[in-house]
């Protein structure tokens, strides 16, 4: 027996028996002592054998636990990789169908299930419709089938509350959305965001299997990513619809303005002609020269407003033609230094009257430019007209021309002092009818079409226009190709 422990009673392992069967024998003390020592050694050996066996069993159990833990960690890493792959794919898409198809296929392959499908809810009509599925041959397809929540309240009640559930579908049972030819273990997880339940994911396994915690967590995370992606896709589609509607309304507005402009052009031309004839008659009768009546002043107002309306109509028609791209170009080669000096003469009287300084900086060695002269004249006229209008007395207006290093692009800068355009308004000043908000928006007159025309004309010449405004100075930069060719 084992009696080495002081805290536990001796344990009887067995008996060591020595037999002398030939005749009676009186055992000697040394023989008894020998047998006792032998029994002690056998007890020690048996104890060691038991401890060794326990250690072996413990090692086997530890190895089993390590293998199980390693397998669990490996599975977790695989699921993490699968989740990242699904997340990257669904986040990169703004198409609902692509999002659901990706999630279904990746989950079905990654979890090796019999079937995986995704459905979208119609909360208004209380129905669920399967949109995509991935299944094996023994399953019957359910794509396109719809079911009412009321038909299976025990399933859709928790799903609509954002809760997942596992259940079994017995052979021959029918869910109104999918008939079972075999028994299945089913996991259903809602796709929901912070606003509502958008749909669900269903996964099918053989009847004797179940979904473990890692699988449940993975499906929930995929459902969350699908919810985010679906919400983004729907917001994108809503914004596209809004943009299309705005574009349609803008086109209707342009069509209306074009139609109105065409319809008004003829009567305004008749009014202008009648005004000219009336002026001839009044001058011949001496009425316009009379100083004691207001007829001359009224006539000037009539003449001015007539010209203003005709100018507005012509601007609208020009914009319509430019938008349609129907206006052909008439190219000419000119010397910019001479041409700009000649153009500036028409503004000299206005600038002198308003006490504005005008500077022209054009290098003498500048090469000629080939472009449509009428377009270029209209561009610079509009920019100089704006500069004269908004530059205060004692302010300065400058036109500077330069050439890029590759000699392919002309830079025409029209700048004026005394005014600064707010940063938030600079991108909008080229929009049609847009005027910078201030306390007196009609102080300087105008229709808000001038800069819109400048932009369209510049683009039609193959160039661009931009504005910079800081330190009480505004500069418009027109970039034009040095030589245009007709295509």
From TrEMBL:
InterPro entries recorded: GAF, GAF-like_dom_sf, HATPase_C_sf, HATPase_dom, His_kinase_dom, HisK_dim/P_dom, HisK_dim/P_sf, Phyto_chromo_attachment
Segments forming domain Phytochrome chromophore attachment site: 1-41
EC number: 2.7.13.3
Family that this chain belongs to: In the N-terminal section; belongs to the phytochrome family.
Annotated Pfam families: GAF (PF01590), HATPase_c (PF02518), HisKA (PF00512)
Name of protein: histidine kinase
UniProt keyword list: Kinase, Phosphoprotein, Transferase, Two-component regulatory system
SMART domains assigned to the protein according to its UniProt record, in alphabetical order: GAF, HATPase_c, HisKA
Any one GO MF annotation of this record: phosphorelay sensor kinase activity
Catalytic reaction equation(s): ATP + protein L-histidine = ADP + protein N-phospho-L-histidine
Enzyme class: transferase
Domain Histidine kinase: 259-484
């Amino acid at each position: 027996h084992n009696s080495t422990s002081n805290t536990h009673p001796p344990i009887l392992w067995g008996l060591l028996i020595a037999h002398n069967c030939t005749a009676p024998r009186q055992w000697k003390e040394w023989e008894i002592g020998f047998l006792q020592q032998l029994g002690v050694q056998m007890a020690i050996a048996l104890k060691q054998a038991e401890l060794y066996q326990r250690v072996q069993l413990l090692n086997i159990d530890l190895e089993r636990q390590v293998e199980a833990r390693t397998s669990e960690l490996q599975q977790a890493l695989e699921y993490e990789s699968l989740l990242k792959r699904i997340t990257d794919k669904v986040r990169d898409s703004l198409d609902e169908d692509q999002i659901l198809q990706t999630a279904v296929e990746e989950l079905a392959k990654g979890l090796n299930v019999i079937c995986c499908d995704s459905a979208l809810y119609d909360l208004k009509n209380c129905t669920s419709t399967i949109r995509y599925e991935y299944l094996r041959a023994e399953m019957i397809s359910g794509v396109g089938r719809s079911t009412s929540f009321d038909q299976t309240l025990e399933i859709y009640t928790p799903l609509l509350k954002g809760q997942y559930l596992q259940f079994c579908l017995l052979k021959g049972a029918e869910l109104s959305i999918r008939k079972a030819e075999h028994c299945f273990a089913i996991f259903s997880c809602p796709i929901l965001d912070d606003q509502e339940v958008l749909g669900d994911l269903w996964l099918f396994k053989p009847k004797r299997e179940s979904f473990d915690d890692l699988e449940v967590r993975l499906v929930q995370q995929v459902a969350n990513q699908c919810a985010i992606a679906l919400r983004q896709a729907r917001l994108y589609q809503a914004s596209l619809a809004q943009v299309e509607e705005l574009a349609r309304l803008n086109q209707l507005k342009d069509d209306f303005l074009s139609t109105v402009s065409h319809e008004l052009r003829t009567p305004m031309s008749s009014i202008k002609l009648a005004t000219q004839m009336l002026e001839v008659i009044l001058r011949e009768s001496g009425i316009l020269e009379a100083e004691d009546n207001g007829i001359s002043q009224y006539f000037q107002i009539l003449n001015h407003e007539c010209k203003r309306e005709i100018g507005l109509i012509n601007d609208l028609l020009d914009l319509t033609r430019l938008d349609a791209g129907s206006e052909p170009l008439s190219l000419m080669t000119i010397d910019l230094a001479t041409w700009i000096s000649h153009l500036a003469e028409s503004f000299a009287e206005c600038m002198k009257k308003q006490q504005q300084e005008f500077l022209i900086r054009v290098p003498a060695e500048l090469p000629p430019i080939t472009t449509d002269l009428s377009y270029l004249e209209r561009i610079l006229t509009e920019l100089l007209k704006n500069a004269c209008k908004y530059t205060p007395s004692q302010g300065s207006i400058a036109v500077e021309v330069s050439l890029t290093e590759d000699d392919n692009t002309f830079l025409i800068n029209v700048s004026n002092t005394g005014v600064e355009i707010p940063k938030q308004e600079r991108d909008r000043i080229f929009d049609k009818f847009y005027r910078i908000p201030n306390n007196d928006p009609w102080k300087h007159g105008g229709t808000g079409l001038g800069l819109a025309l400048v932009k369209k004309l510049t683009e039609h010449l193959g160039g661009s226009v931009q504005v910079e405004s800081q330190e009480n100075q505004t500069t418009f930069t027109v970039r034009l190709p040095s030589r245009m060719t007709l295509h």
